[in-house]
Q: What sequence folds into this?
């Protein structure tokens, strides 16, 4: 049993230590409660820069901080590396993967989301998505080793699929991945291969809808697409992927041979939403998210808060977007509502404050909307750079990430071009 | 076929791009030969700092540089990520793992060594050794997750094995690992756990011989042992390990329950030595190393050089030690002998120049013998620090490694405390 269970203070259990869970935990630092933070991994991940790990621009430790170190000074907080697999809302306990039960008085559910392959789970092994460090390492391995395979392949026709890279989905992650992959081909790997020119590698970005970055104003979508095309990405809009296998995809009936496919198309809420709905009258939306009350609780369960990507929340009549500032704000808000409950005050409804959105495309290329002002190109990229470094957790990370980026900027190099595993036989 | 095969220039194939292979390749940069470098991984590894990756002090990219980037400007050099599995000395070709053959006029064999479990290969899964980045990640995972398991274990008696760490073998790697593991327990993780004091973790260093660092002068061995004991390592000399399993080891008939066991006891040459001996009259020593001629060739095969950890070489009547300066010198020497052969000159015998040896124990603790001068404690540690940063490949690495170390020095923190995988079920 964790230390918290022995005490008489209210027990707050937080499931997941992404932005939502971390900000909730921090808000409770000096509160008269016992907090237990549960996460499957040992680190808080700065997800907005995960694509940089996948594309060898940053090392994993630069964007991941050990949760227990980040929260070490909060003496009321226990950190457990564990996986929550069920919630017993009657018994008020979280069930962990080894059967251990964790009793709570208040629960904050912030487990995040996973990929959705639109009913085709068999595509997952051929087209990894990007949510965890393990995902990023897998994509890095595939992107870099495809070029290694190409260098070993004497037949140009057999080589072509190794030099064709497809990104499915043109949201922020898809745009960032495709832009960086094109830069790797055109800049980073120049002059390093003897049998082919890395600039001949093709990067194709497939989007089901009519424009890239659908969450952005449409003129910024146009600007983003133009920037992508300028650095060599082929953008195909209104494209429907109907098949993915080990050697390529079928899009609008046409087969494209490609050995590297990245999935950035759909997300699906954590199965903990369904676990909650199984034994309660909790409504879920089509993506499996919990349709929360204005106060961010699960309907009928005032002691259970649901935040971040698992929450379908509404603010000012608008759905709250699945971005990190929203998760942070929800985390803080849930913690504050718990503190209000402890003082006997009623919970307050959540209001999302939208400071802006940012997506990067490549070197000196980005689009942004900050406090209603639209930016693109170099100014947007500088804004993106400083915003992301500023929000990185921990001073050391900020410093080293800046050194890495300065280095990459001047040399076009990506220093983390390391694949841990050796070549695989057979 | 690689570009080299099409040309009429002599083809030099180098197997392995550790220190020996890399220095051989570099020496051939402007030579009238076609060089092909073959390595199982995509990176050259700065192995002297690998224990820092295993103990979360450095990220993998800080000590690993993409081979093809390091050699990109050598226009006569092709890099292939591949595994050499056999050598056809009659046909003068290397056989790769996919059956491809790589023809050579000169061959430099520098594949390095692996672990030796003294006839107990079943110990490997319980006691990983430290040769590759994959090894380092596995040890990092085990060291860090043992503490996570301990925090989840309510029973102190069941918790103890998670807080007992054993290092088998007190050569340089064993001493460095044990010293750093003790520092992690005593400094890095202080105040981060709620159910136990990380300082209570035990680190036990087991050595079969009568002293630690057997390759060093005996007074430095004594000094190293004293420094290890001061930072909390239990050193047991003349200890024979007779059994290793998932939950502990048996040493001198006594069972010690320990969930973290690291193997630093024995090395064994690459199987390519045996492959060479199968079809030729090439003598191997007990560790499977090729007993080379004074010129560093395999006896009877004047076009086949064997260097680094695969070579049992003798210089001035003394065996050449298995350290990185020796591998570099052998690599350069083999390349020079090949250039001499191309000029019709006879090969020269190899002479090892010993500039000194260095081993670190922990913060401000090390032993060194440089140009015959013995150092220990803080001066030895400073020497070690600057020597290692100086020899790191690539300016960026040096800078970032220095930042990381300065940070670690002032804060006692180890920034790379990141385990990629989540908790495993069942």
A:
């Amino acid at each position: 049993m964790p230390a918290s269970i022995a005490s008489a203070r209210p027990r707050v259990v937080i499931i997941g230590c992404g932005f939502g869970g971390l900000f909730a935990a921090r808000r409770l630092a000096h509160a008269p409660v016992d907090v237990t933070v549960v996460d499957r991994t040992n680190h808080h991940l700065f997800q907005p820069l995960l694509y940089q790990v996948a594309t060898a621009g940053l090392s994993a430790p630069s964007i991941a901080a050990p949760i227990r170190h980040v929260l070490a000074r909060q003496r009321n907080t226990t950190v457990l590396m564990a996986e929550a697999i069920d919630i017993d809302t009657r018994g008020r306990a979280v069930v962990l993967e080894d059967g251990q039960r964790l009793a709570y008085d208040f629960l904050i559910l912030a487990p995040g989301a996973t990929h959705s392959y639109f009913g085709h789970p068999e595509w997952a092994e051929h087209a990894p998505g990007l949510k965890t460090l393990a995902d990023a390492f897998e994509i890095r391995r595939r992107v870099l080793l495809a070029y290694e395979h190409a260098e070993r392949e004497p037949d140009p026709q057999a080589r072509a699929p190794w030099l064709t890279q497809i990104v499915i989905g043109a949201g922020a992650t898809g745009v960032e991945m495709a832009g960086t992959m094109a830069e790797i081909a055109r800049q980073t790997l120049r002059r390093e291969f003897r049998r082919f020119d890395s600039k001949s590698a093709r990067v194709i970005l497939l989007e089901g809808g009519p424009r890239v970055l659908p969450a952005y104003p449409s003129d910024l979508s146009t600007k983003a697409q133009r920037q992508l095309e300028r650095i060599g990405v082929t953008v195909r809009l209104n494209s429907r992927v109907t098949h993915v296998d080990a050697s390529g995809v079928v899009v609008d009936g046409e087969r494209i041979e490609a050995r590297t496919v990245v999935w950035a198309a759909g997300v699906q809420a954590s199965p903990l939403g369904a676990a909650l709905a199984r034994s309660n009258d909790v409504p879920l939306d089509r993506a499996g998210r919990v349709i929360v009350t204005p106060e961010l609780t699960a309907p009928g369960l005032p002691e259970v808060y649901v935040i971040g990507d698992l929450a379908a929340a509404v603010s000012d009549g608008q759905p709250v977007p699945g971005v990190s500032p929203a998760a942070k704000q929800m985390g803080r808000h849930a913690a504050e509502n718990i503190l209000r409950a402890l003082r006997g005050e009623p919970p307050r409804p959540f209001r999302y404050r939208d400071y802006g959105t940012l997506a990067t495309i490549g070197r000196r290329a980005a689009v942004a909307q900050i406090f209603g002002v639209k930016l693109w190109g170099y100014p947007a990229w500088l804004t993106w750079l400083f915003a992301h470094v500023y929000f990185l957790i921990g001073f050391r990370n900020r410093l080293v990430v800046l050194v890495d980026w300065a280095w990459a900027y001047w040399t076009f190099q990506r220093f983390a071009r390391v694949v841990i595993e050796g070549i695989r036989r057979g």
